[in-house]
């Protein structure tokens, strides 16, 4: 069974009234409760970014320091679930754009320790990062933490990674890292995939596997698939295509059959029903979704 590790924007719907964490708040504990209830493997926390004061923080907010999301991690671990932490994201600068290699090493090691993280992810999609420094720092961090899965979350089309994405892959290979390539299977802006988003995600994962064959020519297809993960955007995408619950089941079956590294989705915050005609931060905008968690449960069942 493939690991199911949804992303979660931990800054959304944060709990501000908890007196123990006032005034800086904490992530909403509902996300930990949902992961346990739905039976997912764990949760990928997003995103650690660069604050205006030059420090590492959550969501570019200096008041949300590096340890801000620890209460949610503790609840997940208590419930037998795994924790992943993702750096970067679409909206803000990654810390690698300013930090030295030594500072990156210290931060990555500290995050692994603070969160007992078993996944360390790098969502690199806006150019505001330094992949050379990331990969150089990870060489030391991986040696110290061999049981932590390193993943690079990269934009992907059904035809595969972009040239920029392949540049990240090659840089990671140059540094002898063991890593997973996680394709963001979403927002293609291609009408031919509007009603076939599940098929598109499967094509994207297969294309990544084929691209990795160029990097690891001696590896079998089954070994290459184990280096691949896929992250569709559930419900309504920004291009107004719709990733359905049936799509979720189809992709999950593919991942299980081919033993992909993990299956994620963007994101747990949105795994709730609504009939909105626009992309909402806390619902799927899929009128056919009946209950909260339908997407995650569909993935876990396969």
Automatic annotation (TrEMBL):
Coiled coil (UniProt feature): none
Annotated Gene Ontology cellular component terms: outer membrane-bounded periplasmic space
Gene3D superfamilies: Glycosidases
Matching InterPro entries: GH, GH18_Chitinase
Gene Ontology molecular function: endochitinase activity
Protein name stated in the entry: GH18 domain-containing protein
Natural source organism: Dictyostelium purpureum (Slime mold)
């Amino acid at each position: 069974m493939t690991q199911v590790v949804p992303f979660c924007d931990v800054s959304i719907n944060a709990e501000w009234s908890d007196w123990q964490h006032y005034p800086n708040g904490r992530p909403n504990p509902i996300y930990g409760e949902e992961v346990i209830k739905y039976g997912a493997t764990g949760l990928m926390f997003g995103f650690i970014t660069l604050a205006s004061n030059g420090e590492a923080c959550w969501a570019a907010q200096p008041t949300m320091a590096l340890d801000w999301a620890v209460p949610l991690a503790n609840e997940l671990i208590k419930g037998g679930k795994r924790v992943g932490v993702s750096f970067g994201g679409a909206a803000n600068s990654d810390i690698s754009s300013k930090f030295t290699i030594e500072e990156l090493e210290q931060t990555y090691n500290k995050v692994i320790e603070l969160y007992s993280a078993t996944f360390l992810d790098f969502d690199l999609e806006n150019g505001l990062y330094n992949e050379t420094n990331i990969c150089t720092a990870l060489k030391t961090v991986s040696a110290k933490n061999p049981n932590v899965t390193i993943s690079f979350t990269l934009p992907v089309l059904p035809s595969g990674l972009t040239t920029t994405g392949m540049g990240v892959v090659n840089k990671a290979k140059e540094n002898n890292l063991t890593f997973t390539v996680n394709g963001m299977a979403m927002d293609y802006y291609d009408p031919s995939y509007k009603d076939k988003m599940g098929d598109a995600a499967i094509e994207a994962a297969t294309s990544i596997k084929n691209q990795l064959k160029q990097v690891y020519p001696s590896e079998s297809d089954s070994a290459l698939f184990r280096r691949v993960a896929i992250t569709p955007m559930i419900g309504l995408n920004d291009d107004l295509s719709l990733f359905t619950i049936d799509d979720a089941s189809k992709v999950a079956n593919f991942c299980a059959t081919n033993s992909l590294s993990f299956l994620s989705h963007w994101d747990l915050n949105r795994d709730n029903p609504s009939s909105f005609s626009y992309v909402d931060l806390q619902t799927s905008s899929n009128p056919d979704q009946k209950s909260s968690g339908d997407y995650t449960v569909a993935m876990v069942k396969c």
